[in-house]
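Pipeline run #58 for the internal structure catalog. This entry was flagged by the ingest filter as a single-chain record with no existing model, so it goes straight to prediction. Upstream metadata was stripped on purpose; only the residue string is passed forward. Reviewer on rotation: M.T. Logging verbosity set to normal.
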Amino acid sequence: MKIQNKKHLIFSFMKNSNSLLILLLFVTGSCTKPSNFEKIESFYRQFKQGDFNRFKRVIVINEEGTCLKCNNIFAQTQAQKVDETENLFIVSGQGTRVDISAYISKNAPNLIMDYKNEFSKLNLVKGCTVFELENRQIIKTTYIQPGNVTEFGKVH
């Protein structure tokens, strides 16, 4: 093969590769990542049916974070509120470090028992959390910690 033919072949390959790269960048750039609201809604749909937009709050109870005592207090106070249908409860974990026994016997349409802790794969929380929802958006995120754990026993 002559040198000129090799140059033409290389140039053609590079030209096609650049076109492919531009197309790839265009396709991946036009895809948007789901919002945190959409991630939670999608998680909900894996377990339940119904109108996700009816929820005003998503209350996440898990065994993560630095204050397991806070998580236990929060889990106990929130268990009394499972009947409040504007709240979605996601209880993640086996219950070995946080007492979730009050939730196990409940069969509520607004309660997800996530024993395999699948919710943590969304990387949205580092402990018990309350998401306030409005107009298909998360308008406030509160992480439960020593300074606010008792507040949620009274207010919500």
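catalog note: Residues 125 and 141 are 9 Å apart (CA to CA).
catalog note: The first strand starts at residue 57 and ends at 61.
status: ready for reviewer M.T.
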